[in-house]
Amino acid sequence: MTTPTVLFVCVHNAGRSQMAAGYLQALAGDRVDVRSAGSAPKDEINPIAIEAMAEEGIDIAGNAPKVLTVDAVRESDVVITMGCGDACPIFPGKRYEDWELDDPAGQGIEAVRPIRDEIRTRVETLIASLVPAAPHA
After folding, report:
1. In this structure, what CATH number is given to the domain that contains residue 22?
2. Contact in structure between 67 and 41 (CB atoms under 8 Å)
3. pLDDT per residue as tens digits for the range 63-84
4. Is the separation of the CB atoms in 39 and 87 below 8 Å?
5. What's the rounded Cα separation, in Å, for the pair 104 and 123?
6. Does 86 reside within a domain?
7. What is the phi/psi pair of residue 100, to 5°?
8. Could you give the CA distance from residue 99 to residue 24 in angstroms, rounded to a whole number?
9. Measured in whole angstroms, how far is the alpha carbon of residue 16 from the centre of its chain?
10. FRET partner for 62 with CA separation of 20 to 30 A, picked from 25, 37, 83, 137?
């Protein structure tokens, strides 16, 4: 079986999509190829998103926002958008999901934690739908 590729897309690729990619990488490991991008990427990751993920033991500080390309969408099996609207190209045969999540931009850590926790829940559900459960020994 080939490794599924998941692309997380939000406008700035600085908060939601970075947290989702961080969770997917940490929880699925090499069972899923993880990518993220933004339709209008910022210069750096939201420092509050970095702090919120660090509380979970996940380091996203070394990541950088990337611009969304048609190739990134074409090469992905699952495209998950988070408030980027019509900026994402649509290709037949792809699985698309739109996760309605509050934007952590400009929010304090108290407001970002519930967004982070919602992302984790959705990522866990996504993993269960993409990757067969490992057999128990």
Report:
1. 3.40.50.2300
2. yes
3. 999 999 999 999 999 999 997 6
4. yes
5. 17
6. yes
7. -80, 105
8. 15
9. 6
10. 83
- The reported pLDDT for the residue numbered 133 is 64
Compute the average pLDDT of residues 8-26. Answer: 95
More confident residue, 48 or 11: 48
One-letter amino acid of 61: A
The residues annotated with a catalytic role in the active site are 10, 84, 88
> What is the token pair recorded at 124?
């866990």
Rounded Cα gap, residues 49 and 113, in angstroms: 9
- What does the pLDDT average to over 30-48? 94
- Give the residue numbers spanning the domain of 78: 5-128
Q: What is the mean pLDDT of residues 80-98?
A: 79
The CA-CA-CA angle for residues 16, 17, 23, to 5°, reads 90
